[in-house]
Amino acid sequence: MDVEGRETALPSDYDRDSDSFTAYTPSATTNSAAIPHHPAISEPQMSSIPTPGLSFHIKCIETGKVITIQKGEVVLALESEQSTRWECVENHGFLGFRDPSSYNFLGYNNHEELCCKVRHHMLWERFHVKETKRGSYHISMTHYDNWIGLMLGGELRPLGRFEKDGLEKIKLTADRGSAINWRFINVPA
To answer: Source organism's superkingdom (predicted)?
Structure first.
């Protein structure tokens, strides 16, 4: 019976008169030393909600790498003390992410690759962030094919990964199936 006096369901092999219980154990054990350590998988961090006025590391869940700047290029790299801390800002309802050391905004260039070259938060620096069912986020940007697309508001395209000159980089992709799952890690300003 439960605390309110209702009859509770018990397993069919339950013995009410016994002081012991049966514990089912696996027939084999796992050698934990043989399992490789993957920090991005074994040490999950809860994602913060990207909020204007706060700063974040923006982490790719699949690789455990963060969006950062190395030698002037926006890349995915392992998180470290030198990782770029992105300030979240809002302009006309759109989110933007600014590097506090250069005051430049994350955006995309003519090749649709992420870059951090301008000090304004305008059309090519607008981010759309949508939470997934698993608590991660998909990040999209408004893409403008031409002036007509600009007048119609553009098309949302997710961020995807690619390799260039030995670096893991990020660009807009038309393939929604290759959208990256992201986590926003709140870091002190």
So the answer is: Eukaryota
Strand partners, 97: 88
Residue 45 near residue 185 (C-beta atoms within 8 A): yes
Give the global pTM. Answer: 0.72
Backbone angles phi, psi at 67, to 5 degrees: -75, 125
pLDDT one-digit tens code per residue, 152-182: 667 889 999 999 999 999 999 988 888 999 9
8 within some domain: no
- The number of folded domains in the chain is 1
Q: Is residue 175 part of a domain?
A: yes
DSSP 60: E
**Distance in angstroms (rounded) separating the CA atoms of residues 82 and 98:** 15
Residue 24 is assigned to a structural domain of this protein: no
| Separation between Cα atoms, residue 28 and residue 179, nearest integer Å | 38
CATH code of residue 108: 2.80.10.50
Rounded distance between C-alpha atoms, residue 89 and residue 13, angstroms: 60
Q: Which two tokens stand for residue 77?
A: 């790299």
